Amino acid sequence: MRSTTSSIRPVERRAFLGAAAGVAATGFLTACGGGTKVGAGQNKAGSAPTFSGGEYKGPKVTLEYWNGFTGGDGPHMQAMVAAFNKKYEGRITVKNTTRRWEDLYPALPTAISAGKGPDVAVIHNDQIATFAVRGTLMPLDDVVSALKLTESDFIPAVWQAGVFDGKRYSVPLDVHCLADYWNSSHLTRAGLDKAPGDRAGYEGALKELQSAGVDHPFWMPNKWPAHLMFMSLLWQFGGELYNQEGTSALWGSDAGEEALGWMVEQIRKGYSPAQVAQDSQYNAFKNNKVSFTWDGIWQINDLKSTASKIKWDMSAIPTIGSTPAVWTASHNFVLTSQAGRDDNKIQAAKFFIDYMSERSTEWAQAGMIPARNSVRAQAEVARLPQTPLAANVDVFRFLPALPGLGDVQSKALELAVQKAVLGHQSPAEALADGVKTANKILAENKQKYAK
User: Fold this and answer.
1) CA 333, CA 326: separation in Å to the nearest integer?
2) CA angle at residue 373 from 372 to 379, to 5 degrees?
3) Cβ contact 368:175 at 8 Å
4) Contact of 306 with 181, CB cutoff 8 Å
């Protein structure tokens, strides 16, 4: 996945895409190789000491901690780690290692097998199933039980995303989703005071903006974040991505055609130029050429730094279909099988995960929406621009917990969206071909990840 901050250079934001859509899973599978479970025979999940909270009473221990926060979110994470090290000075020391997401994911399995990887890490929700089925992660059910953490403490969808095969493998730190960024000056020229939230209003606004002199008010990408836009619209039109068994892609449905058709329609109506190059829509927005752009909330800090160039605001993406919905992902703390070789590291890592999750106020400054309800309710978090997007948490939609889903997304769904937006195929044709490819990969994954 791309790093989730707004100060990321274009190439780094594409890296974020790789993890969000699971592209990095390709390298991960290559590193794992066949059906071998990483950490098999070394994972002490069944005999690990039970976490009971309170204070760490073990000997001095050093934890290796990996994450992919290479952008503007990095300093916020570093500040959180520094605060933990100060609190547990002389007892627990956390060594923070930051790597690009597209490097971190494929490196994890082999590094952990060699004892040179992390004891605790942050990964995205769509990676949990793949790493869990390979034996790279250890369950955290005892942590959430001891701390009496339940779904009611978190945004429900992000809480559920941490469970695979009946066990909890993560504690969520945040949620991050698409948002609709709009140029306030452009809207004022068109007689609008804010971005409309419904289809009729949004399409009417595009027409008014064009009449007011904005040639192309809404540039439609064919790559990042086109597939995130498509998934959001698919859910809005009542569609689903995959069946419950994870054996069939469902996005070639009528809902999928409506979703992709609406995206293509914006080009046909002249609201967007054809063949928008990678990152062009976002750069055009920053340079005062685009009225609306859908992108992740991690762009907030970047846009703040360019505030002198444009006047902008943000809101939830409009409801083009019948049901509000938006693509969402999450950063999650996980305990690895490397820590499972040392009882003291297991306990220390669990204290670290609890501490970081509970004190995510600092993390909200990086542009994220804290996963914990209590943190979002704090005054300093509630006034941040991204927090209102969580006013209705039911709109957040996550990718399902399917091992190897990244290959399906990158080799089938993303490619289908790209072909249609570029005009190489009709939405129906692109989706039909994509579903065939997706179902083939899903069948292969069933064998690859068989227990």
Assistant:
1) 23
2) 110
3) yes
4) no
**Distance (Å) of CA 195 to CA 180, 187, 262, 294, 365:** 8, 8, 18, 12, 24
Ramachandran angles phi, psi of 43, nearest 5°: -75, 115
Backbone angles phi and psi of 174, in degrees to 5: -155, 180
CA gap 209, 269 in Å, rounded: 13
The tally of CA atoms less than 13 A away on the side-chain side of residue 102 is: 11
Given pLDDT bands bounded at 50, 70 and 90, which one contains residue 33? very low
User: What's the pTM?
Assistant: 0.87
| Tokens 């952990």 sit on residue | 112
Cβ atoms of 15 and 102 closer than 8 Å? yes
Per cent of the chain over pLDDT 90 is 69
Q: Which CATH architecture has domain 10-173+330-397?
A: 3-Layer(aba) Sandwich (3.40)
Q: Which architecture does CATH list for 178-325?
A: 3-Layer(aba) Sandwich (3.40)
Domain extents for the chain?
10-173+330-397, 178-325
Cross-strand partners of 123: 332
Instruction: Establish whether the linkage from the previous residue to 225 is cis, with ω within 30° of 0.
Output: yes
Distance from chain centroid for Cα 350:
23
pLDDT of residue 52: 64
